[in-house]
Queue: 4 jobs
Job 1
Amino acid sequence: MDQVIDQATTGITSDASVANNLFERATRLKLRFTTEYGMVSVEDLWDLPLATTRPRTTSLDDVAKALRRELRDTEEESFVVAAKKGDDRLALSFEVVKHIIAVRLAEAEAAKTARQRAEKKQQLLGVLARKQDAALENMTEAEIKAAIEEL
């Protein structure tokens, strides 16, 4: 599952160091994310819902949209002046949020697949039990008595 999550989040199946580097930089810079209801840390992002329709609740989608808007506003390119450090922090913040969203989506998909497999297994076990019951029903009286004696 780690490989699935890593692939979904970084696009790379074998290099988890990309995500590690992302979070190392984020924690060293002590990134904070402005939401409608206050500041949240990188760790707090993991607790936010992916999306929400409830009032007075911030979601990862809301945070990502706000960061994307900020990035768009600062994307004016200059060929003379070097990019500002604030732009780098903003880009890093956006990448962290996108990574967390991708991991959470991959986890949700993995959970959904596991649920579907468990449901299918239960269905098959039910069919097997009915077939075994039918086999018992087809036994003759003598076979039933012999089976009882063996127990």
Note: The longest helix spans residues 85-137.
Job 2
Amino acid sequence: MLVMPRQTRTSARPSAPRVAGLPWYRNPYVLVLLAAALNITSDLMLSRGLHRRGDGEQGATLALAGAAVLASPWVWAGITTYLAGFAAWLSVLRSMPLYLAYSFMSLQQAVAPIGAWLWLGEAVTLRRWLGAALVTAGVLLIAAPAARAEEGLA
């Protein structure tokens, strides 16, 4: 019988983010908001690109290969933006506890409908607006204790 040793917690896991003395572009709170903004932007670009397929012979040839969506510059911009958001997310995970990082990333659920409404012309119902307000309130409830802890460390 193979017995795996029990893993112990190490100090390598990030605790409350320390932002004192960091330049603004390395601040974990800035990075997590940047990651969320890049993910939202990527989704908006991908959506626009997927709904505007190429016409003509090139579009027909790509459609036969199952790659018609790759003809759209919006899709390529969305992929590039997604990769930039992923890089920011990796920096966040290095410097912020996962529960807190995910809390901030959930703001995407509140902000994405605004982008879809403004840029894609999608309808957003009152129920969706109320849900976005609840998500934002939840993030504030989770982030407030972390901010207070940060103030205590500074």
Note: Residues 24-153 form one domain.
Job 3
Amino acid sequence: MPWFAVRTFIRIRRIGRATNKDRQYKTNVDLVEDRIVLFKTRNWTAALRKAQLETRTYCREFGRTKNVYGQRLRAEVLGDPEVYEPFDPLGDSKEIYSSMEWVDRKDTAAKIISRKTGRPSGPMARMFMAAWISEGLDKARAHRLRRTTSGASRS
């Protein structure tokens, strides 16, 4: 059976009033996730059906989650999925997805990349992830800082 790469765009919104806002908290922003998921199935139509089911499940999981500000997260699919069948067998250095777009000749590389990737998430990303993930990342960051600081003081 062939492999198919399916690309979907997911919009993640925060629902409810935020508690314990800090300087990283921003109002009036949502997050859009660009996902590519692989499916091994008999044909393009079956890949699309499997992707739609997987995406609904993925979005539903956000509804069971709160961010570090106590807000529920809600995810919704934007537009229709794009299905791509790789030409080569999967393996090291093999293309699994390709998307092409017409661009104005005057567009700079920075403008194109910015449009294709959006703004970097940085610290704001914690508004759109489960609190337990964000808290775990904070603990790991603090641990790395302690190790770095204690290692520097030993030398």
Note: The mean pLDDT is 83.
Job 4
Amino acid sequence: MVSLSLLNQIVFASLTISSKAQDVYSLFDTQARATLGQLKGALTYPTNGSPGKYGWNTGSSSGWTSGFFPGTLLKLYNHSGDNFMLDNGRRLTEGLADRRHDTTTHDVGFVMYTSFGQLWHLTNDSQAREYLITTADSLSTRFNPIVGCTRSWNSAPPSFEVIAGESRGSRVIIIGNLYFMLTSHPISRTHMLFPSPQIIL
């Protein structure tokens, strides 16, 4: 039998963990607002920081990390229900819309899943869903059925380079494949039947 003392300890530990998690979200919220203040409404995206320098280095929507900050804002909205986070997350996400046609890089999976994927998941936004389907179609052009993987870098044949970063890309293909499941899109099935480290979700 579990003692009342043990139950009290479990409840206290749960409350402590919950309190610490809330502190973390509070810090994230503060930092996200500071970052938005630095961006000043521009459609630029935080990339990295520099030692000894306050604030973020930023880049355009073409960067491989450009979906991360919009996705962070949408996650904060999911936690708090704060429409300020939703509105800014949506605005920065929409700035990435043209990437759905990008066939030049596998990074389009990172960019679109972390931004439009979150938007669709949290708001059931039908346009976000359509953009993900288009992204899946674009990303599928990098898939090689003989290798059974999506090409990472545009290396010259016969090289076919695949890195351990394809899980987001694979998720976008899977989302698209749900839509095309009754047609001829076997890519997701191939990825799932022959899992390798880069696609373990």
Note: The first strand starts at residue 45 and ends at 48.
